[in-house]
Amino acid sequence: MGQQQKGQGGSISSKDELGKIKDQKLIRLDAYVKGKWVSATGNKRFEVTDPGTHQTLGHVADMDAHDVSKAVDAASDAFGEWSKITAKERASLLRKWYDLIVANTDDLARLLTLECGKPFTEAAGEVDYGASYIEWFAEEAKRVNGDVLPTTNNNSRMVVLKQPVGVVGVVTPYNFPSAMITRKVSAALAAGCTVVIRPACETPFSALALCELAERAGIPPGVFNVVPCSKENTPEVGKELTTNPKVRKVSFTGSTNVGKLLMSQASSTMKKISMELGGNAPFIVFEDASIHEAAEQLLFCKFRNSGQTCVCANRIYVHDKVYDEFVSVFTSLVKEKLCIGHGLAPSTNFGPMITNHGLAKTEEHLQRAVKAGAKVVVGGNRANIEAGGDFFEPTVLVNVNNDVPMTCEETFSPLCPIYRFSSEEDVVRCANNVSVGLAGYFFSRDVGRIIRVAESLEVGVVGVNTGSIESEVAPFGGVKQSGVGREGSRYGIDDYLNIKYLNVVF
């Protein structure tokens, strides 16, 4: 297949790297319920490993449905008091939590790299990005405004109140173990809700470290609860959060299939839901685009976190007139700028796959595309890194068939297929010809085309002449089967509030 990428890693010891964390109290192995660090029933634990070395990081409390029920009870008991303190007080506590996260960025980033695999610089960027949501919602807590409606009766007033929904079950994925928690939890706490968080079984350390800092910030017992669990216990824990009547809302980020299951379960008690689900983002390069700018942006947009992001470019469409030039420029960038290795090795900017399942899916999608006629021009193999771990080369393909899984499904991997197109109408049709619609990107200098294509793409977020779209001030979420609701921005707190109408006659 294509040229193998340079790699590095050396002899990395995951335990030694854990020992380099300055504040060792950030390394927590127990669950956190009602302000106390607790073990699971029967003291059961599950193993967490470094995907870059396959070495064990620790054994974390393996909570089951009974344990989670206790956490929900704690959150329910704490809700009454937490929801009644002033927004200014909640904002102050959130700000303290934000300040502690910023002060401990290096330690949090090292933990994140060890459990998730992403390069240290990228991990530090995630910690900072995640903290930005806490800062934002600390300020938004004081802006949850109601309304007084006009009435024709001088002896009455019509008032609209916004009140917190109650206990929120938060279920987060392994690819952003810090930011996905802060994005959800900061909005929930700002609104006056309490939370029970189930982090991904692959990456519980970041959640528990954030919990340690929330405790130091003074967030009261029962308001912030974390219940890690193994892959085996995940279905029953998820079902407890979605069916327990004391949980009034579920916020989930993950695959569309799991989201549908949780949504179905939550319907039994008519909970509010927020679902940020799978994507299959098109990345379109029109003939009038800046080729080098588009290629540079694609390098980031496709290969950040080794392609394991829900908004990464999955299908790259390039106009016939500039196709060969773009492929040449882009493949040169991939060869020159990406260095595979353990995330804590010097100059690494491309880490491992996080799960064995993800690696197997990557190889299957690649094999089926090649069998159908695709040609690999860069990469195409597992990378042999001295540190060990599940590494797959950044891979660029051309001549990809539209009917292969790589085109039709979210790959969630460093596979980068590049397709040709000849007209705006055809490429928009191809871009929209999927069941999901989270993010989309395109590059053009034609103002009319920018408006037409941006309005035509069936996605919730559009990047125009950029591959970077995330910000705490912007609403994030998808359409079609990419989910329900929005996170971040002034709209993000709405999903944690109920609207109550009062008709006051006097």
UniProtKB/TrEMBL annotation:
Keywords, alphabetical: Oxidoreductase
Stored InterPro entries: Ald_DH/histidinol_DH, Ald_DH_C, Ald_DH_CS_CYS, Ald_DH_CS_GLU, Ald_DH_N, Aldehyde_DH_dom, Aldehyde_DH_Superfamily, Succ_semiAld_DH
Organism ancestry: Eukaryota, Fungi, Fungi incertae sedis, Zoopagomycota, Kickxellomycotina
Protein name (database record): Succinate-semialdehyde dehydrogenase
Catalyzed chemical reaction(s): succinate semialdehyde + NADP(+) + H2O = succinate + NADPH + 2 H(+); succinate semialdehyde + NAD(+) + H2O = succinate + NADH + 2 H(+)
GO terms under biological process: gamma-aminobutyric acid catabolic process
Entries under SUPFAM superfamilies matching the protein: ALDH-like
NCBIfam families documented for this protein: SSADH
The protein's annotated pathway: Amino-acid degradation; 4-aminobutanoate degradation
The Aldehyde dehydrogenase domain, residue ranges: 37-501
Broad EC category: oxidoreductase
Keyword Kinase: no
Active-site residues, as the UniProt record annotates them: 276
